[in-house]
Backbone:
């Protein structure tokens, strides 16, 4: 089985973390797993990680320019390159307007060449193309026509047609174009695997003709983390991992609600986004109590999660999408403090089932005491007893759906 994705280990993004769990599950069954992914600049073209054969594809140069700003000091040169890279990316989306949000034919062709060689060399029978990015899905559609005997699976941990939030193009346009592109891809692919949080959206009339191809799962991250239960705890530490964006996951109202307890607790943020100035302002107001660590390796993220006293979650505002990190959080059994803006937040029923989380509505003026009590009573619980409740987020569940 071959997985086609963008950012994989040693510097994965959320999709790469999920793909790694699935690829490891494949190897545990005694089968070969291959991953084709982007080269982030310094990795070898090919290597074997955890028994998984990894083949990397060079990105067009402008796509690298967005990434030094994540891992390096935000100097003028890094900011200028990041801005230039984003503008080139936007201009390419306009160039491919009819296939929006596709923006990079060069990267698509490189994916096609690399996967074609592996199919022919190793007789691969199943290819799982992931969204995000859309170039992986476009490459899979091209490859399906070239290799009709191979099973191609469309695996979306995001969505093209149910996208919300801010952007340079109008939401209505993005949604209409997303429906058009998904209908095209769903017709080509043999199987379509989507996230449960989007089930209602994909039950609409526009997708009914593909119902026999579509199946649903959750993020495949509810699996034991090595070291969980044995890591030393950093008492009175609250840890957040992942991206922060003003439009959908803004830390400002959350930190205002946590302000009364910051004399006793320290909040650590691991990840990137567009909220550094917000975090910096709170760092100045609460010296030593707000700590920004920036974008770090996934191994370091895991160490931070395991050493935390309490894990912090912020729901996505205005979207059906649940953050993938919540399943990684729950796999530790730790107490989770979740802040949400929308009554329909998809995390709410998940955390209710989990049983060791406090969900707080942003803006609730009466929440201070319940937050304080929850932090004081935080604990780790055994997760073996609730694994059956989260079977759709086990890697084995998704692998079974892919191979059915």
Residues:
């Amino acid at each position: 089985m071959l997985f086609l994705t963008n950012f994989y280990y040693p510097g994965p993004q959320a999709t790469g973390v999920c793909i790694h769990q699935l690829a490891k599950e494949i190897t545990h069954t005694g089968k070969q797993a291959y991953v084709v992914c982007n080269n982030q600049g310094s990795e070898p073209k090919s290597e074997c990680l955890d028994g998984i054969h990894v083949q990397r594809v060079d990105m067009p140069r402008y796509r690298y320019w967005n990434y030094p700003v994540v891992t390096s000091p935000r100097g003028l040169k890094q900011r200028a390159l990041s801005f230039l890279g984003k503008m080139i990316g936007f201009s390419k989306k306009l160039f491919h307007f009819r296939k929006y949000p596709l923006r990079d034919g060069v990267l698509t062709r490189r994916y096609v060449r690399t996967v074609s060689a592996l199919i022919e060399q190793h007789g691969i029978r199943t290819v799982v193309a992931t969204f995000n990015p859309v170039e992986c899905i476009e490459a899979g559609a091209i490859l399906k026509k070239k290799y009709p005997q191979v099973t191609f699976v469309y695996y979306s941990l995001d969505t093209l047609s149910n996208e919300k939030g801010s952007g340079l193009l109008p939401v209505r346009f993005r949604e209409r174009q997303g429906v058009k592109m998904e209908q095209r891809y769903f017709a080509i692919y043999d199987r379509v695997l989507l996230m449960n949080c989007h089930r209602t959206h994909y039950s609409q009339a526009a997708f009914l003709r593909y119902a026999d191809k579509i199946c649903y799962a959750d993020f495949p991250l509810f699996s034991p983390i090595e070291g969980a239960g044995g890591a030393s705890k950093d008492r009175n530490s609250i840890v957040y991992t992942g991206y922060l964006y003003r439009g959908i996951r803004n830390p400002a109202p959350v930190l205002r609600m946590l302000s009364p307890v910051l004399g006793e607790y320290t909040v650590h943020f691991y990840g990137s986004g567009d909220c550094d100035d917000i975090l910096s302002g709170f760092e100045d107001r609460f010296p030593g109590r707000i700590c920004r660590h920036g974008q770090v390796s996934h191994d370091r993220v895991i160490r931070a999660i395991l050493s935390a006293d309490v894990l912090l979650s912020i729901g996505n505002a205005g979207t059906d999408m649940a953050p993938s990190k919540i399943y990684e959080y729950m796999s530790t059994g730790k107490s989770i403090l979740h802040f949400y803006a929308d009554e329909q937040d998809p995390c709410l029923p998940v955390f209710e089932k989990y049983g060791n989380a406090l969900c707080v509505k942003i803006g609730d003026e009466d929440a201070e005491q319940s937050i304080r009590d929850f932090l004081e009573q935080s604990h780790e619980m055994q997760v073996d007893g609730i694994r059956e409740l989260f079977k759709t987020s086990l890697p084995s569940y998704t692998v079974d759906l892919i191979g059915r």
About this structure: The longest strand covers residues 52-58.
